[in-house]
Every structure is written in structure tokens, then in C-alpha cells.
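Researcher: I'd like a candidate sequence for this fold, 138 residues long. If you have to choose between options at a position, lean toward the conservative one.
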């Protein structure tokens, strides 16, 4: 099952053309990522106490259909793990009828807050932190 968060598009998030402002897609993506971490048992305070924090290194959004005020959108979130210090996050924005409206792909890392460097094995560190690591694809 893919993790998903439902969000209602609010009127103040609309741009001059009447559709969801591009910056808000990033905010929705961030919200879905934090909700996934919370569902996996990891909170912001837990991360700070353990001396690490997630960082976004790259985001790419592909817009397919507009979202307007009053629309509801399900924002998915899935982590993809490889080797090395970074990982990918894939997200889809879908209307309630299932229509794909946007895709967000990101590259992230886990920053050691003391050394100010990326953790060498973020996959292992996330697994240690999570109460339910399978939600993170671990």
C-alpha cells in the first residue's frame, strides 16, 4: 500500500491564473513526507535528539493538470533506496477520481547536525529511527 495524505486546496493558495501556486506543490510534498515519517514513528524532535535531520538536495515537479480552490488531492510518498548517502522520494498528486495532476521527484539525504555532512548510510539510520520501517520501504 502506498502512503498518502489528502489535502484540500485552499483559496489563498491559488495564483493569478486561478490554479494552485507552484510553490504550494512543494509545501504539499513536504507535508506528505513529514506525515509519512510520523506514521513510521519518527518525529522532528526524535530526529534532533538523534543528531540528524532530513535535507532536500533536489526537487523536480512535472505538472499535468491544474488544481483549483476546493479541489481535494491525495499526495503519495514513497522512498527509494540505493547505495550511498542519498535517496529518492517519489510523490504523486491525484484528484479523488484518480486523475494524476502532478509528479514530484526528489533527492534527499540525512544530515549529521554536528558534522554538517550527509550520513554515509541513511538507509540504516532511518531503519534505526523508525518504529515501522516498512512504511519507509525498509
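Model: Candidate sequence:
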Amino acid at each position: 500500500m502506498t502512503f498518502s495524505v489528502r489535502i484540500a486546496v485552499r483559496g489563498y493558495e491559488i495564483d493569478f491564473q486561478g490554479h494552485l501556486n507552484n510553490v504550494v506543490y512543494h509545501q504539499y510534498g513536504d507535508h506528505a513526507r513529514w506525515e509519512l515519517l510520523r506514521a513510521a514513528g519518527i518525529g522532528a524532535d526524535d530526529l534532533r535528539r538523534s543528531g540528524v535531520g532530513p535535507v532536500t538536495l533536489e526537487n523536480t515537479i512535472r505538472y499535468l493538470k491544474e488544481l483549483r480552490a476546493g479541489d481535494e488531492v491525495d499526495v503519495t510518498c514513497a522512498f527509494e533506496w540505493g547505495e550511498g548517502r542519498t535517496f529518492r522520494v517519489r510523490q504523486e498528486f491525484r484528484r479523488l477520481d484518480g486523475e494524476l495532476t502532478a509528479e514530484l521527484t526528489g533527492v534527499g539525504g540525512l544530515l549529521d547536525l554536528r558534522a554538517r555532512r550527509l550520513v554515509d548510510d541513511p538507509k540504516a539510520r532511518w531503519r534505526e529511527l523508525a518504529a515501522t520501517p516498512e512504511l519507509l520501504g525498509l
